[in-house]
Amino acid sequence: MKNSIKAGWLLIIFILILAGCESDLFLNTDKNTAEDSFNDITFLHDHFYTTNYDLSGHSGAQIDLFKIDTSGILVDRYELDFNGMGYISMTNDGSNLYLLPRFNWFMIKLTHVGEKYPLLPLPYDDEDMDWSASTFCYNSDADSLFVLFQNSNYPDQYRGTYLAPDNPNTEGSKVNITFDFLDNIQYGCYAMTYHNDKYYILAVRSDGTDILMVTDEYLTPISTTDIVDHTVTGLDFLAGSDSLFFSYRDRRVSFFMEVD
Hints:
Layout: H1 2-19, E1 38-44, E2 47-52, E3 63-68, E4 74-80, E5 88-92, E6 97-101, E7 106-110, E8 120-121, E9 131-139, E10 144-151, E11 157-164, E12 167-178, E13 189-195, E14 198-204, E15 210-215, E16 221-226, E17 232-237, E18 243-248, E19 253-258
Antiparallel strand pairs: 1-2, 2-3, 3-4, 5-6, 6-7, 7-8, 9-10, 10-11, 11-12, 13-14, 14-15, 15-16, 17-18, 18-19
């Protein structure tokens, strides 16, 4: 029963994403992703990748995959057949891209040229439905996706769960943590990446300030840095370096800092 209910919900979500607003009598499929802000970024094969935050409200394919070089110049774009997903976290396992729409129960796996695999369902428990995905990253040391779930009833509670990239419906070990100093109404933790045994997390503090939070493998905070530019949307490191880059709403990808 549990699997059938879950499969039914995933089918409904997938149909809604593909259909968008297609229940309207006159469909508006106009597309102008150049006016949308960037979402989270990931660095793969010497380039950054990101998607757009769809604000059009139109039907049809409204989300693109953008390929950006290290100087921040857009070099390619691939149309994705998705719509209405809101903010999307992104990571990669060294070969493929993974997209995670916030507060959903599935992931999207892509090649670096936008070719799509079947949707990847996340673990779901009929008896504990309060947790939904907030953000994620790839942990190269564990060869696992690390998904940060948030408790909808107690939003200062988070649960990090290790998942196999090819079968994320099977849970690995879990880490529980309470971030009582973060915004628990709308934002909280929204992007993360892994580097040298640490998690780097973009979040919003309870006073509305964007912060970069560094934690250990158990999500225990090591440090926090205030981010003056509150339009930040994502982060990742250049492969093989300590250079941390951010993405921003005005469609920039630029260097932020060198880490220790």
